[in-house]
Design brief:
The chain is an alpha/beta fold. 39% of the residues lie in helices and 22% in strands. Helix 7 links the parallel strand 6 and strand 7. Helix 2 runs antiparallel to helix 6, helix 3 runs antiparallel to helix 4 and helix 7 packs across helix 8.
Amino acid sequence: MFLNPWLLTDFYKLTHILQYRPELRELTSYLTPRGSRLKGVDKVVFFGLSAYVHSYVVKNFNDNFFNCPWDEIAVDIADVLKNGLGYTGDMITKTLINLHALHDLHYLPVEINAVAEGTLVPMGVPCLEIKSTNPQFFWVGQALEASLSAAIWHPMVSATIAREYRKIAREAFAKTVENGIDERVAMCDFSMRGQESNESAVNASVAWLTSMWNSSTVAARKHIQNVYGKCTGNVRGLTSTEHSVMTSHACLDGGDEIPTFKYLFDLYKNVSFAAVCDSYDFWNVLTNILPNNFMEEINERGKRGVFIGVRHDSAEPVDALCGIPVVEESKYVHYISKCVPHNLPNGLKKKYLVINPKGNDYIATWDDIYGKWETEHRPRTYEEMGMVETMYEIFGGTINSKGYKVLNPGIKAVYGDSITITRAKQIYERLAAKDFAANNVSLGVGSFSFQALENEDGSLSPFTRDTFSIACKTTHSKYVDEYGTVRERWVYKSPKNFSQKKSQRGLCRIFFDKNGNLTYEDELYEKNLVGKNSALITYFKNGEEFKQNFEEIRNTVTENL
């Protein structure tokens, strides 16, 4: 949202201009992730500051404050002060005098320093410093805190979650996938339509792309170019249908889906594409329509490196891709009793394929209604085999150098949404248990996973600013004493009995220790920082923006894996 930046804040931020003591000459604040609410995640990926600086500190201030007539600015702010806060005429005038002087300066007199984007920041370590550079406007830096916090917490969370997905894919690819195939193509961001806003969708997608290469959010590529000045080719999407395409075709052909696929194969002779195949009967498409009508096209296209992604969109993703779980008979009782009989909704049955060392495999089903096990000696259905195994049986494939099965290169299994962290782990684990490589599937991560974490017990942890307790606190000041001498003083917050809310004191030196871990020391004055190494780089100073390189950010994330 771009408008007068003094309206893009909390009401109370405008009142602070008059609240600070007149002796002050400089304030320095630090942004810190103070704690994690995500189990097993104790570090956050620092990301999003470049976009905030580019879009708000530079562009929005220039377009909607410095380059606007002061009279128009004054009317908007006076209205807020009078009708929104009940300020008297004298208080309005004093506030406007300060802002008018800033308007005449024609740039923001602040310096914003932070660790490089992509850096892994431990909880409790400050990662961003913002300080005033002009004694007359010492209040400006902390005045940005509300918009800074609103702009940066979600990209930080999104980049951190993307890193968790990357770690899952990295482990699975290292175990089961041919060397040279990059895990960054394993999953795709499909979150735009479910994000809180268009801006949130773009920022979250760019954050995702710090760890992965695929996103369906087109604007992410342009945003990278605008913010970082360059975008490499490793920001990719995939040609794909949706239900409106498939169903509008079918309605013109009397419900016959064969002409739809013929149309698509003819249209995309040299382009890989994904087709959503469950508008009516998914398993009929996979096991009848495609092999009986398009086997030749699929095989020929595969030889040229062009595939069709067969996408399911309705069933439970793990079971749809992997079929029923597999367990060895020797482990059957322990495994089943541990994993199945509990936590099933009433009326459901959970099936397992039990592997018998003598070759007489059978299906075991837990009946939740009667609380008993049933065994069935019959061939599995295609649905029980799952998409990947069914594709391998029908369309064929090969065994890679690591001993895992790889599908015919002309076809791939796609599940385009609903892939939570828990499901991603389960999919790769269950495919590996059936001797299938992880790159047989293409997984989509939707908006849910950018807004909440599904824990392994099924509970949800929603993402907010408090996910990593991100806060920006003032810790150092300069002031003029009664003799006119400028002095330094530590500023700090220390609530009794609430240690997690304590802030740093004084200036901070943020640096990498001898083991390469980000750390800091506080309670410092300016003289203590002279000649000391620092992990901070400058993003903005007195109106000038300093750009980073997006590929370097990606490299930083990769190094931290």
